[in-house]
Design brief:
heterodimer; A: alpha+beta; 5-stranded antiparallel β-sheet; 4-stranded antiparallel β-sheet; globular; B: 25 helices
């Protein structure tokens, strides 16, 4: 929609060009959320398009996903053969409520920064143990795991003016085996619950990541595949008020599905 | 800067925060539509360098240096794109508002993409069709049949607007520009109930471009109801254009007109309002308890509110026979409370009004209305002017479903135009549709029914509570309607109802497809199923035993007979067909796994084909070219009236439909018509067209006799000419010329008014699977039997049935308007108020009963509204069959049913 309060667009070729941060500024990546609601507190959009960050960089260490990487690029990504987790990228792309057409515009960083419980890029990067690189306006870059970056429903650790530069996924995680479960009240709707389990072929470590159900991503590590009782025990630690209550699902149902899917994931990865 | 649209270069500069959608429209590319303006509906889909995007989310400046293609640019050298042709051949649209985005999306599909349309089309919402027609179009299925002059009735002919719809030439309400047009925006209440103490407008007035600000002190202090009917007195006078009391979160407090939408919005934000917050009530039972705040403290008689002190707009009590006696004779009695929820129409075109003055001082109102004529009369009343000072018209309307049987904007625009002398436009946002328009009445229904051992009903008793929200528009009529057909359909000597429509501090309810009947058929069908279970009788046998039969008196709870007749009876056929289909084994198999439970269920319904007071007039002219022009006031918003009216006229006049032009929905050009709502498009307006056409035919034949000397009985009216005496031919153009020379007019006018009202029947069947643990419901088979009389256009009629099913499936499975404790709706967007997408609506088997109605035109009766009515109970009956659990409230979404399912033993 028209953002009628916007009076200025800035299109820097380097983030360093924005030295002073003011109230009413906003970074503009794909714009698919910014332009979907009135933004009456914003008067200046700073477009990241001309920064030309490479979207996906594969190294021996892992996968660097630029914040400006478009969803469609992630969907089309073909990783090294031993990166068994690569199909999870597409599974998470397909977990968007929105159309594939939005993929042509929307960015990974935008979805993570929105920090909605159902953000599929949060599910993806959190379960793959991604680490955010953040660029404060003044100061040295800092790093924060995705699970800690998202702090609540529509809340995160970004400081005013701070920029999410990229998310790094270690190659060791990309080599993990994974299991994916998702539920939505409509056939291709917003995730009511999205759980991913990973199993490290080298160490046997099992990591369960709960997203969409809860206000922020919850991650549980087990040295090996735990018993069902053990999983239930850790999930019992999530109070009901940490489950999201909105028109895409009730807290009770989300909790119910979380236990159900966690058990299924445990079973699948045990096989 | 320069921008390239459809191969043309434009030197233009978008505003900094402008999106590509409005920028394209500013340049005249109107086939870039606003359904949601938030990226959820896809109506604004365009290509950016060949890639489809939702243009409402794209900053306009980013299109610089790229090629933008809109639907208008898809035609290549005048040739339609194959996907445009495919949509035309399959008639994959009703109102056509979503079509531009649909085609711009589908035209990018590879063969591989076409295999997964549930995914590929999930970002394109259509509220009319139920998506089957798109599925067919994309797979190249052709449904349009060729016309045969004089025999068009009964054929699947295309919508005459089809070619314009698929090429983007069709103009909807907003597709209109005028020099000096101002924009209107309103400030809406943050409180559910409050008195406006003061509004300071200085800061708002100072915003550059602001022309006028209106508050309750600036409007005519005349009470009215927003609903539009033949007789305004069916509604209470409980609304003012702007008031000093607000009664729901979202109610209008003030209006601003300015040079731009942005300036009007900013001024609204700068208005300083002092409120005295008043206590609010949201539950209708509490509202009528005597302990709630009085929402409309008015005189009962003059305001036509039945009991203002108890917040009761309308109450209806009645009994036929003696239910106490009936229950005492019953061997089994079932009693339960059922609850239905609010639903938004979600028609893709929001409410839009554009008003302007002509030099003669008349006020022109271009509106997205279903009721131009009653709107005109209401405007005359509100502004103390002769109704004929107003010209109300539609061009093409993007969906209605009852949402546009209201005056919800015309009045403010007229006020602004009268004040400023300038054209004024007000376009609702999608959010305003949810919080500031109307929605389906939520009902709470206590049902008690009893029957003898053999299943014969002995008594039916209902207590109905309808939540009309903050205003009484449509409160009484929906209540009355709701307790009519759902009781009339069942033969029973003893029937009793106590029904109340009650005010609360929530967004007003209003007219919505089904109009109260949907709600009570949910309760009645559920109760019939349960009573059958109690008696050990097969549910369908129970229905067959008790449903009305031809020749039966149609009686609900009122003592006298109504003007309703069974003009044709296809109910038994519909039920047989649905039962047969469900037994056939067709449809999808139950998913693998022991946790899936399977069940079947059926619901039945009946609908009176039009409101008692409805009337319409049609005029048919022979033109100089030997063609016909039909003037009829009915509106077209995807219901298909223009198509069927053309078929009715052409069939009677013996010509091809291409010779018939329809002029409709314009108070200056067409004769009076109450409006298109309440299932009247075919039965009432269609009957007017039929009578006028028959009269014109007699006139033409009489003239033919005069000019040829051949006896009338040897003259046959054909496609453009008259054949007489076996071999002679007189061209109609020549007949017209002769007649004109003679000073003879060749036209006819007839009214349809006060006719008996026929009834339509519908039966829905579902076979479903429900997952015991997750609560997920999968529809394995959906079957619908419709008794539409003689089906004038099978393709179109099927589309209406399918669209109804989709709307019903959304309502019963997941659509919900959620409110917080302050009465504020928390999900006023399509992303949070889900309406069915392609993948949510299974392809239905649709069967038509073989009947011919004695009342409707050419044997036809209504079939756009009624198919929604039996759908919800068919689902909950299937759930009962699968699980043994009776779900008594809607929606039956997974998160609302899983807890009960979890109690089932494995």
């Amino acid at each position: 929609m028209d953002l009628n309060t916007i009076t200025e667009i800035r299109r820097p070729s380097s983030a360093d060009a924005i030295t002073k941060w003011e109230n009413g500024y906003a970074w503009l990546a794909g714009g698919t959320w910014l332009f979907s609601e009135p933004q009456i507190a914003i008067h200046t959009l700073i477009d990241l398009e001309d920064l030309k960050w490479p979207s996906l960089t594969v190294t021996d260490q892992g996968l660097e996903i630029a914040a400006t990487c478009k969803i469609i690029e992630l969907e089309n990504f073909k990783g090294p053969a031993d990166w068994k987790a690569t199909p999870l990228l597409s599974e998470c792309c397909h977990s968007f409520l929105s159309s594939f057409k939005i993929w042509n515009v929307a960015t990974v960083g935008g979805n993570v920064i929105m920090s909605l419980p159902a953000g599929p890029m949060i599910s993806l990067t959190a379960s793959l143990e991604g680490v955010c690189t953040l660029w404060p306006r003044n100061g040295a870059p800092r790093q924060l795991p995705v699970v800690d970056f998202v702090t609540g429903n529509h809340q995160n650790a970004l400081q005013p003016g701070e920029l999410l530069r990229s998310i790094f996924v270690p190659a060791s995680v990309m080599r993990k085996k994974h299991a994916f479960r998702r539920f939505s009240l409509t056939h291709q709707g917003r995730s009511e619950t999205l759980l991913v389990g990973t199993l490290c072929p080298a160490t046997g470590e099992f990591v369960l990541t709960v997203t969409a159900s809860t206000l922020r991503p919850m991650q549980y590590r087990f040295p090996s595949i735990p018993s069902d009782a053990k999983i239930r025990e850790v999930l019992d630690g999530i109070p009901l008020d940490q489950y999201l209550n909105d028109t895409h699902g009730s807290p009770e149902h989300r909790r119910h599905l979380t236990y159900y899917f966690a058990e299924q994931i445990r079973e699948e990865l045990s096989a | 800067m320069s921008y390239k649209f459809n191969g043309q270069t434009f030197d233009a500069e978008p505003r900094p925060g402008q999106c590509l959608r409005t920028f394209a429209r500013d340049l005249g590319w109107y086939a870039v539509r606003k359904g949601c303006d938030a990226g959820d509906c896809g109506a604004c889909t365009v290509w950016l360098d060949g890639k489809p995007v939702h243009s409402c989310l794209v900053p306009a400046y980013r299109a610089e240096g790229h090629e933008v293609t809109t639907l208008e640019g898809l035609c290549c050298k005048g040739e339609m794109h194959p996907m445009q042709k495919a949509f035309l051949d399959a008639q994959a649209y009703q109102c056509g508002f979503c079509t531009a985005g649909m085609i711009m999306t589908a035209a990018t599909f590879s063969e591989e993409d076409k295999k997964d349309l549930a995914f590929r089309l999930k970002g394109n919402l259509c509220r009319c069709t139920g998506y089957r027609a798109m599925d067919d179009a994309i797979h190249g299925v052709v449904h349009v049949e060729p016309d045969v002059p004089g025999q068009s009735a009964g054929r699947s002919l295309g919508n005459p607007h089809g070619p314009d719809i698929v090429t983007g030439k069709t103009r909807y309400t907003a597709d209109f520009k005028m020099e000096g047009m101002l924009h209107l925006k309103v400030l809406r209440s943050p409180h559910a109930h409050a008195r406006v103490l003061a509004i300071r407008r200085e800061k708002a007035q100072a915003v550059p471009g602001v022309h006028a600000i209106f508050t309750w002190e600036d409007v005519p202090r005349k009470a009215y109801g927003t609903g539009t009917h033949e007789d305004y007195r069916v509604e209470p006078d409980d609304t003012y254009i702007l008031d000093n009391v607000v009664r729901y979160v979202g109610e209008r407090v003030a209006a601003v007109v300015a040079e731009t939408e942005g300036a009007a919005e900013e001024a609204c934000r700068l208005l300083e309002v002092d409120y005295e917050v008043l206590p609010a009530v949201f539950d209708p039972e509490i509202s009528m308890s005597g302990k709630a705040p009085i929402i409309h403290p008015k005189d009962a008689f003059t305001s036509r509110i039945d009991n203002p002190d108890l917040n009761i707009v309308r109450e209806i009590h009645g009994e036929n026979g003696d239910v106490e006696k009936g229950f005492s004779e019953a061997h089994a009695v079932y009693e339960e409370t059922f609850e239905t929820h609010r639903q938004q129409h979600a028609q893709l075109e929001t409410h839009i009004s554009i008003t302007y003055l002509s030099e003669d001082g008349r006020i022109h109102v271009r509106s997205s209305t279903q009721t131009p004529f009653p709107t005109k009369i209401k405007l005359g009343y509100l502004f103390d002017r002769p109704a004929n000072d107003f010209h109300v018209y539609t061009e093409r309307v993007g969906g209605g479903f009852g949402a546009k049987q209201e005056t919800l904007g015309e009045e403010l625009c007229v006020l602004a135009t009268l004040k400023t002398g300038r054209p004024v436009k007000w376009e609702y946002t999608r959010g305003e549709e949810f919080i500031g328009a109307t929605s389906r009445h939520p009902f709470r229904i206590r049902v008690k029914i009893g029957a003898k051992k053999d299943g014969t009903l002995t008594a039916i008793q209902l207590r109905v509570l309808s939540n009309t929200g903050a205003h009484g528009n449509h409160a009484g009529d929906t209540l009355g309607h709701s307790i009519n057909e759902p009781l009339t359909l069942f033969r029973c000597a003893n029937k009793k109802v106590d029904a109340y429509a009650v005010y609360t501090n929530l967004v007003p309810s209003g007219a919505f497809r089904g109009y109260g009947v949907t709600q009570n058929f949910f309760a009645m069908n559920s109760a019939m199923h349960e009573l059958a279970n109690k008696l050990g009788i097969e549910p369908l046998a129970m229905l067959r035993k008790n449903m009305i039969r031809p020749g039966d008196t149609l009686l609900s709870i009122w003592p006298g007979p109504a003007d309703v007749e069974i003009g044709s009876y296809g109910l038994a056929q519909c039920l047989d067909k649905v039962e047969e289909a469900l037994a056939s084994g067709r449809g999808k198999p139950k998913p693998e796994g022991a946790d899936w439970l399977e069940g079947k269920g059926v619901g039945i319904s009946m609908l009176d084909c039009c409101p008692p007071l409805q009337r319409s007039e049609a005029r048919v002219d022979l033109t100089a070219e030997g063609n016909y022009r039909v003037y009829v006031g009915a509106t077209e918003f995807g219901n298909g009236t223009v198509t069927t009216h053309r078929q009715i006229a052409a069939t009677i006049l013996g010509c091809g439909v291409n010779r018939v032009q329809i002029i409709n929905a314009d108070t200056d050009k067409a004769p009076y018509d109450t409006g298109t709502f309440g299932s009247v498009g075919t039965t009432v307006s269609g009957n007017a067209v039929r009578h006028a056409s028959e009269t014109l035919k007699s006139q033409i034949l009489a003239l033919a006799e005069r000019y040829t000397g051949a006896p009338q009985k040897t003259c046959a009216l054909g496609d453009g000419d008259i054949q007489y005496n076996g071999s002679g031919t007189l061209a109609l153009a020549d007949l017209f010329a002769r007649a004109t020379q003679d000073g003879q007019r060749v036209n006819a006018v007839r009214k349809c008014e006060g006719m008996a009202r026929p009834v339509s029947f519908n039966v829905q069947g579902f076979r479903i699977a429900v997952h015991r643990i997750t609560g997920q419901i999968e529809i394995l088979q959906s079957v619908h039997g419709a008794d539409a009389g003689f089906v004038l256009n099978p393709m179109q009629c099927r589309g209406q049935v399918e669209g109804s099913l989709a709307q019903a499936i959304g309502w019963l499975l997941f659509e919900r308007m959620a409110f917080n404790e302050n009465g504020e709706m928390i999900n006023p967007t399509f992303r949070n108020y889900r309406i069915p997408e392609f993948g949510d609506v299974p392809r239905a088997e649709v069967y038509f009963a073989d009947t011919y109605d004695t009342i409707g035109p050419l044997g036809a009766k209504a079939m756009s509204e009624s198919p929604i009515n039996p759908v919800a109970p068919a689902m909950t009956n299937a759930l009962k069959d699968a699980t043994g659990i009776r779900f008594t409230s809607l929606p039956v979404s997974a998160d609302r049913i899983f807890a009960q399912l979890a109690k089932l033993k494995k």
